[in-house]
Write a structure and sequence with these properties.
Keywords: Glycoprotein, Membrane, Signal, Transmembrane, Transmembrane helix. It is built from four helices and two strands; from the N terminus they run H-H-H-H-E-E. By secondary structure, the chain is an all-alpha fold. The protein has a two-stranded antiparallel ribbon with strand order 1-2.
């Protein structure tokens, strides 16, 4: 039971460390994925970016202008961002940078970090709850042992130098 408590405490420490590490890693990873975007829905980076932008209602890393620095933007030469940057209520959105009102203004990096921190907090709370239950179990075991040592009904019977 003690080993489980120690393990859950280590888990909490690992996740607390991850909270501080996650921002730097997300920035590096998201930049890499944006660089690999090719606009087709057949490769994983393109699907991932389109999915994140639609689900989190965001565009680009810090905002929609980040797309100007990507290989996809330079190769397409159409001065637009992916359609996944378009707000859902805009019917004729083409992703054109000349109509920024049709696009999500907020970047995805901050929203992804926020979502990951939310998830990690749930994991931390679960680990802390598990550790608290373990501590309660150890406390109950200690109470039973202390009562046992004072209760004459639990005295050892010694007969002839051996335990009965």
């Amino acid at each position: 039971m003690g080993q489980c408590g120690i393990t859950s405490s280590k888990t909490v420490l690992v996740f607390l460390n991850l909270i501080f590490w996650v921002e730097d890693e997300v920035n590096h990873s998201i930049q890499k994925v944006y660089d690999e975007y090719n606009g087709t829905n057949t490769d994983a980076p393109s699907r991932a970016i389109d999915y994140v932008q639609r689900q989190l209602h965001c565009c680009g890393i810090t905002n929609y202008s980040d797309w100007k620095n990507t290989r996809w933007f330079k190769e397409s030469r159409n001065n637009s961002v992916p359609l996944s940057c378009c707000k859902p209520n805009m019917n004729n959105c083409t992703g054109s940078l000349s109509r920024p009102g049709d696009l999500y203004p907020e970047g995805c990096e901050a929203l992804v970090v926020k979502k990951l921190k939310e998830i990690m907090m749930y994991v931390i709370w679960a680990a802390l709850t598990f550790a608290a239950i373990q501590m309660l179990g150890m406390l109950c075991a200690c109470v039973v042992l202390c009562r046992r040592s004072r209760d004459p009904a639990y005295e050892l019977l010694i007969t002839g130098g051996t335990y009965a």
